[in-house]
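HOLO CASE FILE
Compound: arginine
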Amino acid sequence: MEEIMKLEEAKRTVQEAISTALTEIAPQVLTAQKVMNLLEVPKNDRMGDFAFPAFQLAKNLHQAPQQIAQQILDQLDQTAFAKVQVQGPYLNFFLHREEVAATTLAEVIAAGADFGSSAQGQQKQVVIDMSSPNIAKPMSMGHLRSTVIGNSIAKILTKLDYQPVKINHLGDWGTQFGKLMVAYKKWGSEEDVKRDPINSLQKYYVKFHQLDQEHPELDDEAREWFKKLENGDQEATYLWRWFRKESLKAFTKVYDQLGVTFDSFKGEAFYNDKMSEITDLLEEKGLLQTSKGAEIVDLGPDLPPALIKKSDGATLYITRDLAAALYRQRTYHFAKALYVVGSEQSVHFEQLKAVLQKMGYDWAQDIEHIRFGLITSGGKKLSTRAGRVILLEDVLHDSVQLAQAQIDAKNPTLPDKETVAHAVGVGAVIFHDLKNNRTDNFDFQLEEVVRFEGETGPYVQYTHARAQSVLRKAATQVQEQSTIITVGESDWNIVKQLANFPEVITQAGAQREPSVIAKYALRLAKSFNHYYAHSKILVADEQLDYRLNLLKATTIVLKEALNLLGVQAPDEM
Ligand code: ARG
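Model generated. Tokens follow.
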């Protein structure tokens, strides 16, 4: 195969040409890195593929930018480019489109789904704490965010040759179980829990919180039940196990629908016997202090102290997380430990890191809180206690229904309609979540999630299926011809984006930001649809091969981009 011309390499070539020319006219004014940083990708294709603004140099040399640009051009070795032009204060570089197109398409097609992979991760393990819903509560939209963001990050990291370990740190311990047991014993029924575990348990929990304001004795009872549980009481343990099992069954249904799997379900309870080591270590290292009967680690002026043990001896969320971090480091020797959890827990993760640092663990610096924004409803915070919840199951159900209806209307003879409707409906929900920067808050509107036009997952899926269907037709209708390429404006746009996919994946991985991929997929789909609307693909001329290869490469990359988001790409829809 020919030398591969990726866009980053092309950029490097531009920088080298400029730097060489500069040694003649203004040596040592701009470093190679500075030149690189100054290079722009113009919005308008007429301004070339890369542009070098001469403002900075003009300032340094006290000359007009246009003059400088011209001087560089006079000294420039232009052989690597189709054209170089001065336009105003800019030097514009035009690449050899035909060459870049030929090598890019060949590379994408040869690599297939592997296009964009890299070896940077060297098989290092990255643990990803994700989803982690609380037992006996419904999986909320927040947990959905954690699930799909974590899943996508895992896929992106795999592509970059890391080994993710997806851990579901189930909220299966805590005082809420005391409340739940009280509520169940007072108002619950076994049949109801068996029939509809999550909703029934949820109902009890909400009722508890409706009444405990006026009946503080309920809280006392709840504390007692939780204490029983911690002490291994038979009935309490039996109830706990049962609630956990039923909840997990319901969660598994959702995970199956989303197509998400985990490597571990070790939740908070798993660390019950591992926390004394933490308190011992903290004591040994002289980090534990007593404050109002509780044991704390002081974290200085910038952070609230970490509350390790309550006055009644009960251990806390952070204590479990300390034990979990230590356990994970010993078990996986992780290169990084990511926690995909809402922004509202930022302080908690800062405290976690700070305590581990105080304990002398260097690997504390490899802990990253992958925060994400809040989902509100009508501007209000969702809350299980207030009963203001959006049920993920309902959202998925509605979205799949709508996909089904659309397919019935538009493509009633489609084979395997239900599978496709599922892929589209679920894909819409996942994509909707991943297309915004993860730290953005957003207000949840069902109509928005199940919208299939515009910047949506189904739009990308549909674009992919459309290109596939042209390729299917081509296979039966037209003869392939030899390839002479002239690359037009709108196909050049596609080629450049395809060539940029590896960069995009690297960036998404480094930023732990699936939206980088989602936005890229939207741009590529849009460019493709523009091209498709303005060209005849299936004409037996000398460019046919090129056009079909362009379509093929586009389907490969769109499908892989969706795959990295955890969204399926049906061949037909
Ligand atoms: N169960 C917690 C919640 O729903 C999230 C747990 C996040 N993971 C962790 N290791 N703290 O808020």
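CASE NOTES: The longest helix spans residues 234-258. The chain has a mean pLDDT of 92.
CLOSED: yes
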